[in-house]
């Protein structure tokens, strides 16, 4: 079971998340999209895949900021949790893909383990960010399989 946590201001990361979810389902996984991720409703024995864009000056999209606040304030133990992060960003910003790095750090502070290095997609170069995500996805699937 894979919980997909979406952070998206204008819809690009959400579209990537929909494509990734579809591909994971085709690969035989159950995947649930969370457009308003809530720590209390996510099962830490499942794999969490965060797919987010970056806004402001390295800020999180509005819809995923409350989840980051929950993670920062909450003392709960997430040592059973494995996660991965796909970030969309624009390399003309100094804070390229900072939102995904911030979420990855917050999860690791709670004891969660990253399955892979964050995938950072530069929308300045990638015409279709979902294509880069789908090329990377088999690496994630293989890593999950090894842990099963
Ligand atoms: C106002 C604004 C601020 C942005 N700030 C950043 C930033 O700090 N770092 C970054 O890597 N990308 C930044 N971006 C680029 C977005 O992350 C990128 O366009 C992304 O594809 C938007 O995805 P979304 O439609 O899911 O929100 C910014 C874009 C806008 C419009």
Structural description of this entry:
The chain is α/β, with parallel strands linked by helices and 148 residues long. It has one domain: Flavodoxin domain (Rossmann fold). It contains four helices and six strands. The protein has helices at residues 12-26, 65-73, 98-109, 129-147; strands spanning 2-7, 31-34, 47-53, 82-89, 113-114, 119-122. Strands 1, 2, 3, 4, 5 and 6 form a six-stranded parallel β-sheet that branches. Strand 3, helix 2 (65-73) and strand 4 (82-89) form a beta-alpha-beta unit. Helix 1 (12-26) packs across helix 4 (129-147). It is globular. The site of flavin mononucleotide has 23 residues, from helix 1 and strand 4.
Per-chain topology:
Elements: E1 2-7, H1 12-26, E2 31-34, E3 47-53, H2 65-73, E4 82-89, H3 98-109, E5 113-114, E6 119-122, H4 129-147
Parallel strand pairs: 1-2, 1-3, 3-4, 4-5, 4-6
The structure holds flavin mononucleotide.
Broad structural category: alpha/beta
The CATH superfamily turns out to be Flavodoxin domain
Rounded to the nearest angstrom, the distance between the terminal CA atoms is: 11 Å
The CATH architecture: 3-Layer(aba) Sandwich
The percentage helix is 25-40%
Overall spatial form? globular
Helix run count: 4
Bound molecules: flavin mononucleotide
Q: Can you summarize the main beta sheet?
A: 6 strands, parallel
Low-pLDDT segments: none
The CATH class: Alpha Beta
- The arrangement of helices and strands along the chain is EHEEHEHEEH
Provide the domain count.
1
């Amino acid at each position: 079971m894979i919980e997909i946590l979406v952070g998206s201001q204008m819809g690009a990361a959400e579209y990537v998340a929909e494509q990734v979810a579809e591909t994971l389902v085709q690969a035989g996984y159950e995947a649930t999209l969370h457009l308003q991720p809530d720590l209390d409703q996510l099962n830490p024995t499942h794999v969490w895949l965060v797919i987010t864009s970056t806004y402001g000056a390295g800020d999180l999209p509005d819809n995923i900021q409350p989840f980051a606040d929950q993670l920062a304030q909450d003392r709960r133990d997430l040592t059973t949790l494995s996660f991965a992060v796909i970030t969309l960003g624009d390399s003309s910003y100094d804070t390229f893909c900072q939102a995904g790095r911030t979420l990855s750090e917050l999860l690791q502070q709670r004891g969660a383990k990253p399955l892979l290095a964050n995938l950072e997609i530069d929308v300045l170069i990638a015409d279709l960010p979902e294509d880069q995500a789908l090329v990377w996805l088999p690496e994630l699937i293989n890593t999950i399989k090894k842990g099963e």
